[in-house]
Amino acid sequence: MSAQDTALDGARDEAGSPPVLAIDGPRATIRLNRPRHLNRIQPEDLNALLHLFREVEGNPAVKVLVLTGTGRAFSAGFDLGAMADRATRQEAKGPGTMFEDVANRLENLGLPTICRLNGGVYGGSTDLALACDFRIGVDTCEMIMPAARLGLHYYTGGLRRYVSRLGVNAAKKLFLTAQRIDAAEMLRIGYLTAAVPAERLDAEVDALADILAANAPAAVAGMKRAINDIARDAFDEAAADLRHRDSMRGPEIGEGIKAYKEKRPPRFGGR
Questions:
Q1: Considering the domain 3-213, what is its CATH architecture?
Q2: pTM of the predicted structure, to 2 decimals
Q3: DSSP states of 3-72
Q4: How far is the C-alpha of 43 from the C-alpha of 35, rounded, in Å?
Q5: For the chain, what are the domain ranges?
Q6: pLDDT mean by block of 10 residues, the chain; 271 residues
């Protein structure tokens, strides 16, 4: 746990709260904030996350989002008690569907996202992290997807994300065996972008966030969308080609070429 996490633990009620948002210049940070229960996600947290995603995406000054957790874990996943209760009552809009909505919304945000894995990532929160564009974790983190052990057939969006991002073999190993894996294996299969000692976590996340925030936001958003669409076999080639042609006439390429000629960093506007 980093000094930042320790300070936040002391500053907040240990019982926690719904996710919290902080904005610092071009960077937004959403923090899962129930450290007593390893940031276990409650039903009310799902709507809170959707609200925060809308707030971040609606702020043109924000160019990158970091998702993280308070304390010693990223998240213990969705509250199984709430899931069992809703399954018993056979609600039309069950927790799996709501959780899938949140993960899909995160994946489709129109700005780059980084998951700062300050500790273990379990259950549904593994898909929440996977919905981010990048995942940087401490080298002591671990993950487990226990759906098979719980008798749960996972929702389709999560299965698709696992297969498209990690491959069939890794997805089968994680879902069908329900076995825990460590940071080294998470890095090997591509779940982690980087694994670093706890004392370097913030510096690594900051460096990547700065790189992403400095790039042309419209170009980044368009290419992110195209890459995600290709990965899930839903590529709209005509729409991507239109974005490409628009970019050739847009202000971002003008500033990018000018900055290159003047040997200075480009100064792109907001989204």
A1: Alpha-Beta Complex (3.90)
A2: 0.89
A3: HHHHHHHHHS-TT-EEEEEEEETTEEEEEEE-GGGTTPBPHHHHHHHHHHHHHHHT-TT--EEEEEESSS
A4: 16
A5: 3-213, 217-261
A6: 48 75 97 96 96 97 97 92 56 68 97 98 97 98 97 95 97 98 98 98 98 97 96 93 94 95 94 83
